[in-house]
Structure to design on (625 residues):
């Protein structure tokens, strides 16, 4: 059994009529429930819920404060390498673009790490493009070994790996895995992933589960919103998270709700995810999965991020550069354009002004090293 | 009336233990300490960052007895490792063992907790295991050297009160160790009830940290815990199903 079987079942649902059948009454019923089921989730994502956003927000905020208190975890991504063998139609690192590619060597890595650590971060997410040749597991592993000297927790966002490879990385000190399906709708997935191993839908879909099986402490998933009908994509994402949560109770499952951002190429998605839609999605995630961490990236503009901190978000990135070595070097190619370019201190000030405590350290991988 | 509670060799006058998580700012911690009158404070080692100015430890008043907890541990080994690090970092030799392998409901894993209790008690720690209220597990924790038992009233952060009341009652009457009700208490009246039942102390965090006015709530809990304790010591009258005439046998004389 894998989530793929659920995908096959969910694909059969008549979405055009399904979304229309819900009323505000269904949404209110879901809001009064303890544990929401598949239908409640649909109700929360349906057009009918658009008129209940305030009620949803109140409940989502209550749940968030109860489970997470007034704290906001901060982390930052670090791009290790931008080599990629795939052609995804929404990304600047795609193999069809011609720009000088790079990957960090040990010295550059140390410089980058010390600059980031000096700004207070203890949790780091490392990213690479997908290239088993230029940034193989062994390379990531070597980098992580160095990064452990600077950070309490290191997570990875790299190409899907096998359980054994995930285990190897865990032994090197990685404790979290982020892996976005990007698109759950299979046909659209094939259309947007034109070339390379990423074309294999199922290999990607099952990778978060392999991460759980390998024993990562935290696994974070998400759909890149804007690639296909957002209601359906958000529905599949939340169902995927619930599937993993139910099957791997020892793993902390988290969600992200990244919206498509401008990049090097011309591609413009058909589905427009408005701010209202994004809010509805985040609220539905929180209500359906009260204990899941929800991450908000700098893809969103500062003004919107400032509002979303009260609507279910528990983790934020800050001080972000989406290019390799972007904290110490210039001239790289960003993977996509970020929107909130405030520095770390500005994010801290914003959180404090919102009565939230910025938290840089919430786990320590050193504590799990063999006794 | 003097009613000290001695735990790990330390006499305590307050039976309210508090937490440090979930506050909107660390500067609230000393204020909550003052209004709650608490003398024991739990802190998650995973949140301690000695390299940072914002280190949570900088906000804990020096007179407090520290109860580092092993939050984040999913196995006995992780809990042991965290406890040793806490001691090495100078946080004292008390430890609240928290081993949670279920991230959905955050319920403690009693069998891993027993294992961790054995190891740490043998190493001289004052061990306070957080547990699901279960008599045989509590007895094993006692045999393993626990200094007190910390059963949950309801799942962590749920503010649902004493959902496990009957089981707590059994632990209080059968386990010859202090019982400290931890997790679930959302209202001062529930803290008072736990104390009336004979709990030795209560530990709470969410109820204070997420109140609109945490300082006023801390004060409310201080009073509730002390009232509940007084009622317990005073010996509550027996509960009767129907109203009873105040002098059923001699009333006719009036
Ligand atoms: S999204 Fe990832 S796999 Fe696709 S082109 Fe960009 S870096 Fe490569």
């Amino acid at each position: 059994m894998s989530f793929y079987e659920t995908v096959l079942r969910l694909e059969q649902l008549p979405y055009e009529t399904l979304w229309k059948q819900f009323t505000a009454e269904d949404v209110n019923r879901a809001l009064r429930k303890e544990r929401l089921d598949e239908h409640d989730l649909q109700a929360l994502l349906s057009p009918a819920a658009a008129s209940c956003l305030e009620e949803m927000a109140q409940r989502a905020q209550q749940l968030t404060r109860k489970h997470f208190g007034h704290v906001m975890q901060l982390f930052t991504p670090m791009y290790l390498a931008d080599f990629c063998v795939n052609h995804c139609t929404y990304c600047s690192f795609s193999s069809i673009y011609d720009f000088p590619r790079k990957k960090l060597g040990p010295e550059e890595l140390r410089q980058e790490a010390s600059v980031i650590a000096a700004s207070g971060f203890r949790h780091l997410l490392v990213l690479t493009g997908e290239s088993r040749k230029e940034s193989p597991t062994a390379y990531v592993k070597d980098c992580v070994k160095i990064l452990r000297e600077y950070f309490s927790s290191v997570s990875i966002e790299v190409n899907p790996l096998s359980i054994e490879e995930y285990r190897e990385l865990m032994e090197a000190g990685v404790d979290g895995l982020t892996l976005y399906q990007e698109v759950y709708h299979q046909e659209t997935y094939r259309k947007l992933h034109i070339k390379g191993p990423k074309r294999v839908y199922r290999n990607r879909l099952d990778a978060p589960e392999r991460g759980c099986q390998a024993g990562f402490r935290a696994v974070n998933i998400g759909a890149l919103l804007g690639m296909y009908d957002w209601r359906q994509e958000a529905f599949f994402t939340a169902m995927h998270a619930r599937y993993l949560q139910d099957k791997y109770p020892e793993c902390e499952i988290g969600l992200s709700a990244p919206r498509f951002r401008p990049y090097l190429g011309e591609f413009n998605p058909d589905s427009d995810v408005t701010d209202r839609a994004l809010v509805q999605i985040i609220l539905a995630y929180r209500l359906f999965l009260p204990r899941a961490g929800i991450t908000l990236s700098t893809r969103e503009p500062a003004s919107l991020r400032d509002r979303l901190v009260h609507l279910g978000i528990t983790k934020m990135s800050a001080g972000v550069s989406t290019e390799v070595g972007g904290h110490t070097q210039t001239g790289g190619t960003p993977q996509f354009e970020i929107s909130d370019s405030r520095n770390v201190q500005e994010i801290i000030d914003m959180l404090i002004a919102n009565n939230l405590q910025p938290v840089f350290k919430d786990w320590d991988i050193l504590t799990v090293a063999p006794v | 009336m003097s009613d000290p509670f001695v735990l790990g060799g330390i006499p305590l006058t307050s039976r309210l233990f508090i937490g440090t998580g979930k506050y909107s700012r660390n500067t609230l911690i000393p204020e909550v300490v003052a209004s709650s009158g608490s003398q024991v404070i739990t802190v998650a080692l995973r949140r301690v960052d000695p390299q940072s100015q914002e280190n949570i430890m900088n906000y804990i008043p020096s007179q407090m007895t520290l109860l580092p907890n092993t939050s984040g541990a999913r196995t006995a080994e992780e809990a042991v490792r965290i406890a040793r690090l806490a001691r090495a970092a100078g946080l004292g030799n008390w430890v609240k063992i928290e081993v949670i392998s279920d991230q959905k409901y955050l319920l403690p894993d009693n069998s891993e907790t027993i294992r961790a209790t054995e190891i740490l008690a043998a190493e001289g720690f004052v061990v306070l295991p957080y547990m699901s209220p279960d008599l045989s597990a509590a007895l094993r924790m006692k045999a393993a050297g626990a200094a007190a038992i910390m059963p949950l009233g309801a799942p962590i952060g749920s503010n649902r009160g004493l959902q496990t009341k009957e089981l707590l009652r059994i632990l209080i009457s059968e386990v010859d160790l202090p019982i400290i009700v931890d997790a679930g208490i959302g209202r001062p009246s529930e803290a008072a009830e736990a104390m009336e039942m004979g709990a030795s102390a209560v530990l709470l965090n969410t109820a204070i940290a997420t109140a609109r006015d945490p300082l006023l709530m801390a004060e409310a809990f201080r009073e509730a815990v002390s009232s509940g304790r007084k009622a317990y010591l005073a010996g509550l009258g027996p509960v009767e199903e129907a109203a009873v005439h105040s002098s059923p046998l001699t009333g006719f004389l009036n």
